[in-house]
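Worked example

This section walks through a single chain of length 360. The input is the sequence exactly as stored; nothing has been trimmed or padded.
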Amino acid sequence: MKSAEITEQGQYTLSEILSQPRCWSTCLAKLAGSAELCAAIELARPGAEWIFVGCGTSYYLAQAAASSFNYLELPARAVTASDLLMYPALTLHAGRDCIPVVISRSGRTSEAVRAAQMLEKEHNLRTIAITCADGQPLEPECSVTLKLLDADEQSTVMTRSFSSMLLALQYVAATVSGNDAFRRALTALPQQVEPLLKNTPQRLRLFAESRSFSDFVFLAQGPLFGIASECMLKVTESACAYAQVFHSLEFRHGPKSIAGPETLITFLMSETSYDAEAELLEEMKALGAATMVIANRVDGRAQRASDFAIELGLQSPEYARPAAFAIWGQLYGVYYGLKKGLNPDSPKNLTRAVVLADGN
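Given that input, the structure is written out below as tokens.
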């Protein structure tokens, strides 16, 4: 009876997480042939800075998208909608050309809608929206709207919408920069990730059920930091657990004081910083922390220092892989929430969109 109840709880979130490779293929195929993509690309201007605006998960998506844009030599940065609204002078500068992109799964997030209004009406900036909903308040406030309707979710927390919108923005970057190899790598990613969903989720579920922790830490560098931030949020939301995120090598500078048997430290390891992060992994293991590793290749050194490891084995280049790393933090959050008897489909205190009263 208990098992059936647990299956019922979290069923939407789990099915949405596991549907991601198929969802990615559908979204990218529709985006590639869309008039909206052409309209967004027309707004691209040489030397202009892309500014990605979001709240919560959408802000972490903004961080990950900005990383890929910078890699493809398109200057970019991420900013929270609240910072843009309250401190616009820190982001918008006279004489500096920029292309704002406002991210909101629902298209109803109040701060995102208000940021778009400010950008378009007060600063006369043509703004791109990306969302998973149709006909919502954000759309009329922006000059162009990219809609990934297949990526929307029934559950409260963002999972496939996060990764699908990230891939869509990476696809925009590849198209604007003329990097066809990167664009092909993005479209090939779903077929490479799909086989990982056959056995790894069950292994991860058993690991989540086997141990209890009081603290969760996610570490990453470079293109994976936004993903680590999103994994941190998924554990917080789905498992109602205390989680933190740090740039990997910054963890030595004070935060490592929490390392111990009650702390699970998850390393999202990329190729560029792999050796340095493997050294940190060994150090944290020696301090008694439990460790989980997610990497494209897990060598013997990392395997020995980890309690649980996921090797992705993808052929795609480093900067085309981040969406594939997000899945495992999402799943762990759900499995740990179920272990605690929670319903990850509907976490306490949360709604699908933060809609504020007028004037707030």
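What to look for: Residues 160-177 form the longest helix (18 residues).
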